[in-house]
Design a protein that fits this description.
Blueprint: H1 3-9, H2 13-36, H3 44-60, E1 84-86, E2 95-97, H4 100-113, E3 124-130, E4 133-140, E5 143-149, E6 155-157, H5 160-163, E7 180-188, H6 191-203, H7 212-220, H8 225-230, E8 234-243, H9 251-260, E9 270-272, H10 275-288, E10 296-303, H11 306-312, E11 322-326, E12 331-343, E13 349-360, E14 363-369, H12 373-377, E15 397-401, E16 409-413, E17 438-442, E18 449-455, H13 462-472, H14 485-493, H15 504-515, H16 530-542, E19 545-547, H17 548-554, H18 562-572, H19 575-584, H20 591-598, H21 604-615, H22 617-627, E20 631-633, E21 649-653, H23 661-670, E22 674-676, E23 685-688, H24 694-701, E24 705-707, H25 709-716
Length: 718
């Protein structure tokens, strides 16, 4: 098990949600600097590490995936300086891999999705990942008509005039080319040309440029195409957008077609079948990296067959049939000065390392996550040793890695530098905020001790109460402008009853309490004022009606993130139906429990947390008061016009032969169906392959429509 994977395994759901929020904000800022302004604030390795960390946390906590997640976004908004071009086919980004195990997992996932054994029968292409600017060049009837940057993946900047200055890119295609052709690739500046340009700038007494990638990007965005022409930009073709017809049936074949049409293509591209050969080519490219006259930051692998690419399809922002194997990130050594304990919304005690400031990849690091008591002791989540059993102590020299962390992680200690009088860290048994006992719960079913230590104080603990309120008003919950972290702390601590906000319903009675109070009015308090108070009240009132999934997410139910909240909203339709079902459900028994567990993506741990939440009288009382002030809107039906299965609940069972389980699920959901993992009274259709057993029997018993794979394909139109 890798150190990074272990660290992610130790994240609590509260830590994960907080870190994903930080990551979304940090990556968006760097996207704008990198793609929009050509002024990156961090290195490519650090940026890749941020995205890697985000993806890894989302993989472990899919219920926490945010609407503004970097995994759902490509690039940044196009500049208003240039006219905009809407891409006929979106320009998506690639998922990243960072280790040999990641590459093996990628290859295995391809075979698994297609329902094939990993017998090396599928070919992959492998080529350098050019560190440049993505470009899409459109030809109609053989003539170049437009060229656009990637932008946000849907809309890019029209830089046609500047692209025409790049001699390597043909203005016309040979006879016989399809009527519509979109060639995609990377615009870059050669290292030798970059060095020559900087020497010229020095001679002229002008400021030199930072790196070839930013210089290429800035050169391409010049309003004067003569400046672009003087910069000697280059291009590699490796992909395509809209094509009126396909001149080849493989990735490798398409690139050779581009070469025959006069486009430069990368000579290091190879077609390979085994993981061993793929990794050997990665090493070969990596070793030769210093000698290349262009910058690369990894190797891209793609399934070669276009037919298989079509079957594999896409996720929200990336294809399943391709990945980028990036080169490694950085680490640094520093001293651990102290360990502080933070208390989260659910009472989790999270240790945070305070470090002697150190620069890692161009960023000054002062804090690092330590996850929990066992992580500090050098114990993994399954009892296995971490760092070969080395514990972490105050005063230790530690190795810090920013491998994606906004809050970095300590990956190891240097025992040779440990002070002889150092002592093991003793994790607190008392909450540092409220003084209540702090315990590690025991799972009743497994008997396993929870990795997280939690304060037992509940809402008497100021930290838990305020963190719950901060979650309630957070961006993907109620998102109340003007009611941020500082304001929540102020209202919570206020001794004036007309100002106090101790629970969520208090937010919506604040204006009324202020209007009828003879005590100090909010607008007379420093930091507010009449205008800002008016805006705050308006923002609160705008949220008296809210989408059902946002309402459920805002409740702060343990293990229920944004994705899970959306699943619940879609499954139950209205809050009344959801609440009634949760109150009726009992763990491990009854129809309500079975229906909850049948929702694809809802497991026993999440289901139990939801049911237990509604069995707590205080929670129900707070929600009742909240519902007197706000109205959760019914969930919208899937916008899938003409689909015969939109809104229906489908269960697949047996050994499917026409498609894999993943393909079946992806196809059904694209048509607006809900895919469940088990049969219940709410199941509409059961699709049974050979060997279907108890699920088929139960469906027949309940009178549910059943069909085989052929009948399903006829129903959905193939």
């Amino acid at each position: 098990m890798s150190t990074e994977a272990t660290a992610i395994d130790f994240l609590t759901i509260e830590e994960a949600a907080a870190e994903l929020e930080c990551l979304a904000r940090e990556i968006a800022r760097n996207d704008e600097l990198y793609h929009g302004k050509d002024r990156p604030a961090i290195s490519d390795a650090d940026y890749d590490a941020l995205k890697r960390r985000n993806d890894a946390i989302e993989a472990r906590f899919p219920e926490l995936i945010r609407e503004d997640s970097p995994s759902r976004r490509v690039g940044s908004a196009p500049s208003v300086t240039f006219a905009q071009v809407v891409h006929a086919r979106p320009m998506l980004s690639l998922d990243n891999t960072f280790s040999q195990d990641d590459v093996q997992d990628f290859v295995n996932s391809v075979y698994r999705f297609l329902g094939r054994l990993p017998d090396q029968s599928i070919a992959f292409t492998a080529e350098p990942k050019i560190d440049g600017l993505s470009m899409s060049i459109r030809y109609e009837n053989g003539r170049m008509v437009s060229a656009a940057t990637r932008g946000d993946g849907t809309t890019g900047e029209n830089v046609t005039a500047n692209i025409r200055t790049i001699k390597e890119i043909p203005n016309e295609l040979p006879k016989g080319a399809p009527a519509v052709v979109e060639v995609r690739g990377e615009v870059y500046m050669a290292k030798s040309d970059f060095i020559a340009l900087n020497r010229q700038m020095e001679v002229e007494g002008k400021q030199t440029y930072v790196n070839p990638r930013n210089t290429a990007s800035g050169s391409l965005r010049q309003l004067d195409s003569k400046i672009t022409a003087s910069r000697k930009l280059k291009f590699f073709a490796y992909a395509w957008g809209e094509m009126s017809e396909m001149p080849a049936d493989t990735q490798f074949g398409m690139v050779q077609v581009f070469k025959n049409w006069g486009f430069p293509v990368n000579p290091l591209m190879k077609r390979l079948n085994s993981v061993a050969d793929i990794l050997a080519h990665y090493d070969e490219i990596g070793f030769g990296r210093p000698d290349l006259d262009y910058d690369i930051d990894g190797v891209v692998y793609k399934v070669d067959s276009l037919e298989l690419q079509a079957r594999l399809g896409f996720r929200s922002r990336s294809p399943r049939w391709a990945t980028a194997h990036k080169f490694p990130a950085e680490q640094a050594f520093t001293r651990l000065q102290a360990i502080d304990i933070q208390v989260g919304r659910t009472g989790a005690l999270t240790p945070v390392a305070r470090l002697e400031p150190i620069t890692v990849g161009g960023v000054v690091v002062t804090n690092a996550t330590l996850h929990n008591e066992d992580y500090i002791k050098g114990i993994g989540n399954s009892g296995e040793p971490l760092r070969e059993g080395r514990d972490i102590r105050i005063g230790d020299m530690v190795i810090v890695q920013r491998a994606g962390d906004v809050i970095p992680q300590i990956v190891d200690v240097v025992l040779e530098k440990r002070e002889p009088n150092s002592k093991p860290y003793v994790f607190p048994k008392i909450c540092p905020v409220c003084g209540s006992h702090a315990l590690r719960e025991v799972n009743e079913k497994t008997g396993k001790v929870d990795a997280v230590t939690r304060c037992t104080g509940g809402f008497i603990c100021r930290a838990q109460a305020t963190e719950h309120l901060k979650h309630f008003v957070s961006r993907n919950a109620y998102d109340i402008e003007g009611l941020g972290s500082k304001q929540v702390d102020f209202f919570f601590e206020s001794g004036d009853p007309s100002l106090q906000i101790r629970t969520a319903p208090d937010i919506f009675t604040l204006e009324k309490r202020q209007g009828g109070s003879s005590l100090t009015k909010l607008e007379n308090i420093d930091g507010f004022g009449k205008v800002s108070v008016g805006k705050l009240y308006a923002a609160i009132n705008e949220r008296r009606r809210i989408a059902l999934h946002r309402f459920i997410y805002a409740l702060g139910i343990r293990h229920v993130g944004e994705t899970t909240a959306k699943l619940l909203a879609r499954a139950y339709g209205t809050y009344e139906a959801f609440e009634a079902a949760m109150k009726d459900a009992s763990p491990m028994s009854g129809d309500a429990w079975n229906e909850l567990n049948a929702i694809e993506g809802i497991g026993e741990i999440v289901a139990r947390a939801i049911v237990e939440f509604y069995k707590e009288a205080r929670n129900v009382e707070v929600i009742t008061r909240l519902l007197a002030e706000v109205t959760p809107e019914a969930a919208e039906l899937p916008a899938t016009s003409g689909s015969p299965v939109a809104g229906k609940t489908v269960v697949f069972t047996g050994s499917l032969e026409k498609f894999t389980r993943d393909e079946a699920k992806a196809r059904a959901e694209s048509l607006g169906a809900k895919v469940a993992g088990s049969v219940s009274k709410k199941t509409d259709i059961l699709v049974a392959g050979p060997g279907a057993g108890s699920k088929l029997d139960k469906a027949r018993e309940l009178g549910i429509q059943t069909m085989d794979e052929d009948e399903w394909l006829v129903l959905i139109g193939g």
